[in-house]
TrEMBL record:
The gene is Sult6b1_2. This is Sulfotransferase. Its EC number is 2.8.2.-. Keywords: Transferase. Belongs to the sulfotransferase 1 family. One of its GO terms (molecular function) is sulfotransferase activity. InterPro entries: P-loop_NTPase, Sulfotransferase_dom. It comes from the Eukaryota. Transmembrane segments: none annotated. The lineage of its organism: Eukaryota, Metazoa, Chordata, Craniata, Vertebrata. Coiled coil: none annotated. It comes from Edolisoma coerulescens.
């Protein structure tokens, strides 16, 4: 969900001392929508990746898909890489890849930045930040840049049908 991506970037930027920090969500949102973030424009990033979405060595999966059914996501990822998993191995991966498990181990895996990488792990936190106007602007940008693409259709399905 591009709205959750923006929300995550905002909190990530606030937590990382090496990145520009924003005093307000509104300041961040303006930079996000005008392509002024350190990593560039999210919609251009999606558009660029869309060029490769049909290649056999590319698999697309959304965070929302994994949140909805992590076991199925893990099975699909393992199959994509040609890795057979026993039921026991599948369950182990599912348990260890839960947000709660990764957050718990984040200091070991990511050092002092662990708490920045693993903040909430939910979906739809954007609703706590976006104004109605910002929501409309994001929807319009999504429609203009990626809605008609393969990735856009997948994201739109997750955004509107699963939320």
């Amino acid at each position: 969900n591009p709205k959750d991506v923006a929300t995550s970037f905002y909190h990530f930027s606030k937590g990382m001392a090496t990145l520009p920090s924003y005093e307000t969500w509104d300041d961040f949102f303006t930079d996000f929508m005008t392509k002024k973030l350190v990593w560039g424009c999210y919609f251009e990033y999606l558009s660029e990746w869309n060029k490769y979405a049909d290649e056999e060595n590319i698999m697309t999966i959304t965070y929302e898909e994994l949140k909805e059914n992590r076991a199925l996501g893990v099975k699909n990822i393992a199959a994509f890489f040609g890795i057979p998993l026993t039921e026991e191995e599948l369950q182990l991966v599912v348990e260890r890849s839960s947000f709660q498990s990764m957050k718990k181990n984040s200091e070991k895996t990511h050092g002092t930045s662990g708490n920045i990488f693993f903040r909430k792990g939910g979906v739809s936190d954007w609703k706590n930040h976006f104004s109605e106007d910002q929501n409309e602007k994001m929807d319009k940008a999504f429609e203009e840049h990626v809605a008609g693409t393969k990735l856009g259709k997948k994201l739109k399905y997750d955004l509107y049908c699963k939320a």
